[in-house]
Design goal:
37% strand; alpha+beta; rod-shaped; 2 helices; 4-stranded antiparallel sheet
Length: 192
Amino acid sequence: MKSHSGDYLLEEYRSNGTLLKKVNVHLEIQAPVSKPAVSQMCLSPEQMNISCSSEGDGVEFNWTLNGVLLVPTRGYSQFPSNMTENIESPTGDQTERDKPSVSNVTISFLGQQTGNLMCGVWNNVSRDETVFHLAGCKAFFSHSPVVVAVRASVVTLLLLALCLGICHVHKKTRPTAVNEVGVMFLHSEAEA
């Protein structure tokens, strides 16, 4: 278990009990990496963030886009993996130290970027990778429910403004005719 990591002293003796040598050994047990999880978030038609996360200790990341290597990075761990104290659970359950940490890296791209993005992860124990197809954000924003709703709202407001404008123009021309009829009606009543 990870809690067994630490410094050990190895002593070697002859069969008669005399000491041959002493050796200090540092043992560090690491959890292997898990298959990386990759996600894409479009912030605007011009910008996207891609996140890659993996469980394991001392996780290293590398990225390729359409086969071209991008900058290798070290993940940010949710739990520190450099603790040295020996923590044991009285119930025999895994302690926080024995649970693998989760590392995450986020990179930004232009929103129109497309292609096959590979996130590779590795540590001293194992390695794995996930290939993710990037879709441009412009298409996402032009067909997203929010954009469609905003467009529908704008069209509705324009139609409402047009109707109000027509009603206002029509109302301005009607009062003149009504006033003339009203005046004529008043005259005819006064004559009677």
